[in-house]
Queue: 2 jobs
Job 1
Amino acid sequence: MERPELIVQEPIVQAPAAPEPQRRDFFQVGTASGRVERAERRVSVAVEDVSAWYGSKLAVAGVSFEVLAHSVTALIGPSGCGKSTVLRCINRMHEINVGARVEGTVRLEGADVYGPNVDATRVRQRVGMVFQKPNPFPTMSIAENVAAGLRFMKIGTKSEERDRVEEALRAAALWDEVKDDLNKSGMALSGGQQQRLCIARTIAVEPEVVLMDEPCSALDPVATLKIEDLMAELAQRYTIVIVTHNLQQAARVADYTGFILLEQSDSAGHLIEYSPTSDLFTHPRDKRTEDFITGRFG
Amino acid sequence: MARKGTPVGVEAQRARIERTPLTGGANLGNLVFAGLMSVAAAVVGLLIFGLFWELTSRSLPSIQASGFGFLWGTTWDPPKGIFGAGTFIVGTLITAVAALVAASVVGVLVALFLVEVAPPAIARPISYVVELLAAIPSVVYGLWGVYVLGVFIRDHLGPWIDGSLGAFIPFFDGEPRITGIFSACIVLSIMILPTVMAVSRDVIAAVPGSQREGVLALGATRWEMIRTSVLPYARSGVMGAAILGLARAVGETLAVTLVIGNRVGIPHTIFDPAYTMASVIANQFTEVENEMHRSALLEVALVLLVMTFLINVVARLLVWRVTNGQRVTVQE
Amino acid sequence: MTPDNAAASVDRFTAADPLYRRRKAIDRAMTAVMFAAAGATVVPLALILFYLFRNGLGAINLDLFLLDPSAPGRGGGGVRSALVGSAIMVGLGTAIGTPVAIGCGVFLAEFGRNRAGTVLRFLVDVLAGIPSITVGLFVYGLIVLPARQFTAFAGAVALAIILIPILARITEEMMLLVPRSLREAAYALGAPHWMTVLRIVLPTAMPGIMTGLMLALARIAGEAAPLMFTALGNQFLSTDLFHAMDALPLRIFYFATGPYENWHQQAWAMSLVLVLFILGVSLLARTIVGSKVTVRQ
């Protein structure tokens, strides 16, 4: 069993272009960035020149960026630009579509997740995912839902499992609401609660990275706020990559933000710009980024 | 929020990274799973193959003895060893086609009614009734066909047909009895009605709403819409439904055995007794007179199998074309 | 447009226009015909049920369930051997057929998105339409002849072959109805394919599959043709899987073709019991998942 090499280096983020005096702050940018300075500056996920196809249709072309451990990274862009596809390439969920194909390299702590002999299920054990619509398992109770991943991997005894379930539910800020109903069906919860249940289910197996694919798009504003608060908490323990169509959300929660856009030339998604969130929203380097965040299209 | 057993932050991540290396052996579970499911699938495939193989090999003696004449010979004389299945094939085709015509007309009308006309409050109970008709066992239809329907035909319906239609159409001019092809046709048409109706209903329901709206927007009445847009669109599927019903009628055994009268010979009137392929097997197979008789009956089964197989292939292809391989209906 | 023209054009949409009236009349007539056809389907069911109760109810008594068939020409007796035999063979047939059918359905749903799957799906549909009497003869050649013995086991195998295509296709359809998001959730937790299917997809599809199983069971409970040359029938009580065994539909057939009045009565009584059982199971199955069983777009 080879120990993956820990790569400690600065992320590839170009120095922001010289500030132009007349540019105003489009959004109030969160202060989350400070967290990354404090923690070890380690690249957790490195996406290197990744392209993805559905059948013969190119969906994402040559995307590269690096995600720092314990940071929140947001991918934004107009709908249909391929940002979810990029996300699904990280934990090899893209390939479960019939005819789907990925080229390029995704490194998780330096090890290529598309390398030879790599088992996709092991990648997904280390890179969890929360989906757009809450999807608790309907045949399972709340507790069983949270424990599902543990049972898949056959981790722990019954009592350890109970501890992990409670822990995960607390971490997902759901424990107080469901602690008396652990044996009820997960489907009985509200949408926001279901989504937090799905987050608890994901973190119960202690992944390194949590991918979130528009986790709040099916939720009301109050539930959205709860999950945004949760993300800041979770980033202390996990590395988070979130896809969102909500610019304010990216500005509020993310340390780094990438902007993906469908290019006319090959009608595939390209990463236009990737910077610390404050830079991207206040001093976008690319005209198209500026157009997008000022609402001129998308 | 540090809790027991869970280190927080950087150390925790290092621990997690070491816990799960990305590479590992191929997933044995997936292989076993795919293997087991493939075996089950192969068993089903082999069943079809085995059916043909078994019946062909067991009927070889008869095939060699009778040749193709088996298909049109009308003499069936087990003691003398002369076997021609012609009369059974004719009996099968007459009853099945007559039943099909009756069941198709009613079945398609009911299907149109359920999809295009009836509100759910009426459509649901009628669907139920038709599904219950499908659930009644063949042998119960046979029992009812002999002791209720057959008696009614002999005493009331038969004499009336004989007296009216029989006066100028020879085929209707016969002596009504309890069992005969007329009883068989009626029982069969009731039995295949659910198949025709259910498949037609699903096919008609699969006609896109835009087809209907286009014609309605031109000011068509509902019937004009059905005639000019729904039926043409669903035509091949409805034909498929009818042919599926035909396959059922051809293979139907016990009900027919009980009501058709079981006599070797070409029927001359609708009240004559006859044999179908399935009923001759059911009636004679447990009392075969010699090995050749057994082999000949197995050849009859082979002919029946090939016939229903071909009918089914045609029907399924027609239905699939309309519904794009969607499951059409659960109960056959 | 002159006022006269306007009046004429309005006429076209009112009952005053003869063409319109004729079209409307045809529409009404055809609606009435469709309605009548739908109503006509109720008649045979009502007649069958009516006569089942009229002729069968009187012969239902304790003896029917507790005694074996009497010798020909002697009154009395019951159909215990047939009831027991049906229960054994339907049970065994279901036990043999269900794993194969579910396996085949899972194969179609999980590995069947290709040419091999399409061919197999087609064969399964065709197998469902093959006459049950040929299935009986197939098993006769496969098991009865080599063993030189009519056996309940052979009967159960024949029933299983009838059950397999029905249940296999229901299993496939029910699995395809399971939302993709659940499958993705399991994958995202690191579950391998087989675990995703066994722990998430199959349990979620289970109510539908159970319904299909009950419908298939109701179907084989009424089958006599596949049993005639495999289990043969037996007027004595037998629980030996390797001997001839009786079954309810078989016994109905033998009694219906016999010359004795008490046999006919018992045939009606057995039919009533059988039909009530089958209708009960079918209705129960339908109430579990309602209309989910018929899959439409």
Job 2
Amino acid sequence: MLIYLPIAEIPVDPFVVIFMGAVVGFLSGMFGVGGGFLMTPLLIFYGIPPAIAVGTEASQIVASSVSGVLAHLKRKTVDFMMGGFLVAGGGVGAIVGIFIFRYFRAMGQIETFISLAYIIFLGLIGALMMVESMRALLRSPDAPRPRRKHRSVEWMAVMPFAMRFRRSQIYISPIPPIILGFLVGVLSAIMGVGGGFIMVPAMLYILKMPTNVVIGTSLFQIIFVTAIATILHAAANQTVDIVLSLLLLTGGVIGAQIGARAGRRLKGEQLRALLALIVLGVCARLVFGLVTPPASPFIVVGAP
Amino acid sequence: MMRLAAIIWIGFAVASAQAAEIAIALTNDHVEVDTGFSGARLTLFGAISGIEAPETGAGVDIISVIRGPATQFEIRQLQKSGPIWMPGNTHAIKDAPGLYLTNANRPITDIAPLPDQAAYHLGTDFLKIDATQDHREAPDEAQTSAQAELFAKAFVTEVEDAGLYRDRIGGVEFKKGSLFAINVDLPANTPVGDYSVAVYLYQDGVLLGRDEADLVVNKVGIERRIFDLAHNQPVTYGILCVAISLFAGWIAALAFRK
């Protein structure tokens, strides 16, 4: 059985697509990550045009973030004020990202650009996670954990308009959150990711937000920024395929449930090492795709 | 029933003709691309009149040409830049048929003389394909005729691999009397738009007659509505996508709530 995707304009096997959604959903449930940075490359490997993979993935992240956002709203673990600044920066970032995307698309280089962006980010994050988790795994369980140094970030203290963020119980300038939101918004629009993998560490180590509000606030930012990116991709590039998105979501929610259960059986360090391996594997596959001589040296695109 | 009606109708239509003639009709002049579309079979029915016993195969040849809507294609050559392969300059292929399928009872080169093949564009080798370099990308480089030829040839090879262009020997069946049928398989990536279908009747390398018919390929159903909305009202479509995603996510959250 084949389903014809209305925007991608190619026939796909719906069960393969649902299965792909389930695999990424499983991983995201197991590791507690969004999964956009795995889903987009997987769609590209499957033969979905990269531009449509990115646009569609933005809409899928909106859908798969709903349950997390609702849960955190109920637990009151969202800092709305912080979230507001992040979204403000993120919205502008998404617009800038779409302009960059359009530019490379008009140049005919969007495929190469998306692949390179993924190689850089997956390579960096995979390597960092691998080093960190190997260190943790090799450390003997009896040895005391090294104390994290509480260095105050000096450049943040001199920023103007410092204000109190009640829920986070911090007193900082809104400029760093706006800049952070902006950068993640650009990435979100270009790569079809939520950006949690950058947002969460940045909130913890740069903004010094307490752990309990970080995930909720990050999800709050992600759902708004990916919603903005979805509308922008649809309006500027016509690259959001809602049928593909819903197929992925169907597999994703089921996979995430199973993944969450599987994740409880593994230790944190083991999980991170495993995720690092997967991330590096996807990165290597993308590198392989760019450096191997193509089967056919020509690319043809057509429009009526 | 429809096929029978078509055959009878053609039979009547050509019975009165005197000179050698060929006439065709499509069993279905609308092909509908819906969510489950994975290609379709198109049957052309036709009749020959004015010559003796064509079914004996006394040197009678038939060529059919299906031409899709004029399409603006772009072709790029992947070039090695440093360690990676990236697309080079754009070459535009203007107004090439979006689909081009020929069927003949034997190789076209054996049926029609070269001047005819060139005049009627019979066969992918005789399509007029112009590849012009995009001057905005490389204003200083002049395109050589060798380059133009290379890209035009590469274009045809690529679209043949994609199943959009094809010369096929076969699919032509001579039926009883002066009737014939041609079966053409439309690929899953058949573009939408207005098509022309032409048949050419040859005997001993001489064109005896030809006929044309129109064909429309449409998108239908939810498939078409989504496509139209996304392209005609992209902002509305984007907002709708977000609304659907939020709703679907909410349903999923409810379904798995403990």
